[in-house]
Specification:
It contains six helices and 15 strands. The protein is an alpha/beta fold and about 300 residues long. The chain has a seven-stranded mixed β-sheet with strand order 10-9-8-7-11-12-15, with helices on both faces. The chain has a six-stranded antiparallel β-sheet with strand order 4-3-6-1-2-5. A two-stranded antiparallel sheet has the order 13-14. The protein is globular and about 50 Å long. Bound molecules: flavin-adenine dinucleotide (FAD) and FE2/S2 (inorganic) cluster (FES). Flavin-adenine dinucleotide binds next to strand 4, strand 5, helix 2 and helix 3.
C-alpha cells in the first residue's frame, strides 16, 4: 500500500491542485452534519441511508462521485452517492447504499433515524454518461456495484430519447442479493432498458439465468461501433467485463470503470488510494479502461 512518503514523488503544484478538491464546507477535511431521515433495507446486508443536511443547503453532485461518511466515534469511509443527481434541486435526500462489511459500515446502517453523521464531499470524477449521447449504452454491474452506477443510469433515463439502445447487465451472488430489483423491472417496462439479470448460484427450481454477468456481454445486442460502457463491481469482474467489451470491439477509452481502494483524506493528500501516478480519490474513482488497464494488471499496486 502507498503511504504519505509517496507524496515526495509528486510536484507541489500537483498536490496543491488535488488539495483544492471541491468542498461544501470551505475546508474539505471538515465534515458537514447530516441527519439520517430514513434507512431502507435493500437486501440482507445492504441498506440505503437517506440524509438531510442539519444546516445549510443540499449537496449537489455528479453521477459517480463519492462522499466520506463519518460515523462519530467509529470512523470514516468512502461511499458513492446512489441518488439522482437532479434530486438536490427537488428537495430529495442525499442517498447512499451501503453494504455492511465492517465496523464503520455496520455503525452507519444500524444507526436509527435521527442520528447525526458527518459528510465530506462530494469528491472524485463522474461517469459523464452523456458522452454516450447518440450511441448505445451498456451498463455492466455486479452486486452492490449497481449503487454507484444508479446516478448514471438516472442521467441517461432523464433524456432517454437521446440514446440508442440501453442495456443493463446485472449479476448477483444469489437471487436474494439482487439490489433494486423492483426499480430494474420499472426501468425495463417504462424506459425501454434491456435488463438482463444473472446469479452466480441459485436454489433448485430457480427460473432465472445462472452464470457470471461477464458471460452476458458476448451476446448482448448493442452496436460496438457506437456504444459506450459503464462498469462497476468487484475488480476481477470489472477486468473480465472490460476485456469482453474490448473483444466485442469497444475502444478501451469508451469503457469506464469505478475503482475502489482504501481512502483516508479523499482529496489527494494522504496517498492511501494511490495506483502508481493515479490518485483514485481525485483522478478517479471513475476512469477509462485505456488508463486503467496497465494499472489493473499489476498485482502489487
Ligand atoms: C470510491 C469508493 C466508493 C465506494 N462506494 C461504496 C458504496 O457505494 N457502497 C458500499 O457499501 N461500499 C462502498 N465502498 C467500499 C466501502 O468504502 C468499504 O466497504 C468500507 O470502507 C468498509 O469499511 P468498514 O470499516 O465497514 O469495514 P473494514 O473493517 O474496514 O473492512 C471490511 C472488509 O471490507 C474490505 N474493504 C475495506 N475498505 C474497502 C474498500 N475501499 N474497497 C474494497 N474493500 C474494502 C476490507 O478489506 C475487509 O475485507 C466504496 C469505496 C470507495 C473507495
Ligand atoms: S490521497 Fe488520500 S484518499 Fe486519495
Amino acid at each position: 500500500m502507498a503511504d504519505i512518503r509517496n507524496l515526495a514523488l509528486h510536484d507541489d503544484e500537483g498536490v496543491a491542485a488535488r488539495a483544492s478538491a471541491p468542498s461544501t464546507t470551505g475546508d474539505p477535511m471538515v465534515p458537514r452534519r447530516y441527519a439520517i431521515t430514513r434507512v431502507r433495507q435493500d437486501t440482507r446486508d445492504t441498506f440505503t441511508l437517506m440524509l438531510d443536511p442539519v444546516d445549510g443547503g443540499p449537496m449537489r453532485f455528479r453521477a459517480g462521485q463519492f462522499t466520506m461518511l463519518h460515523a462519530f466515534g467509529v470512523g470514516e469511509v468512502p461511499i458513492s452517492i446512489s441518488g439522482d443527481p437532479r434530486g438536490a434541486d427537488e428537495g430529495a435526500p442525499l442517498e447512499h447504499t451501503i453494504r455492511n462489511v465492517g465496523a464503520v459500515t455496520r455503525a452507519l446502517v444500524n444507526a436509527p433515524p435521527g442520528t447525526e453523521i458527518g459528510v465530506r464531499g462530494p469528491f472524485g470524477t463522474s461517469w459523464d454518461a452523456p458522452d454516450a449521447v447518440g450511441g448505445d449504452v451498456v451498463f455492466v454491474t455486479g452486486g452492490i456495484g449497481l449503487a454507484p452506477l444508479r446516478p448514471a443510469i438516472l442521467d441517461v433515463l432523464a433524456e432517454r430519447d437521446k440514446y440508442g439502445k440501453v442495456l443493463l447487465l446485472y449479476g448477483s451472488r444469489t437471487p436474494e442479493d439482487i439490489l433494486y430489483g423492483d426499480e430494474m423491472r420499472r426501468w425495463a417496462d417504462l424506459n425501454d432498458v434491456n435488463v438482463q439479470m444473472t446469479v452466480d448460484n441459485a436454489p433448485y427450481g430457480y427460473k432465472g439465468k445462472v452464470g457470471f454477468v461477464t458471460e452476458l456481454i458476448a451476446r448482448a445486442g448493442f452496436d460496438p461501433r457506437r456504444a459506450w460502457a459503464f462498469v462497476c463491481g468487484p475488480e476481477g469482474m470489472m477486468r473480465a467485463a472490460a476485456s469482453a467489451l474490448v473483444s466485442r470491439g469497444l475502444p478501451p477509452a469508451k469503457v469506464r470503470l469505478s475503482m475502489e481502494r482504501s481512502m483516508k483524506c479523499g482529496i489527494g493528500l494522504c496517498g492511501h488510494c494511490q495506483l502508481r501516478d493515479v490518485f483514485l480519490c481525485v483522478d478517479g474513482p471513475v476512469l477509462d479502461y485505456a488508463r486503467l488497464e496497465p494499472l489493473m494488471n499489476v498485482r502489487e499496486l
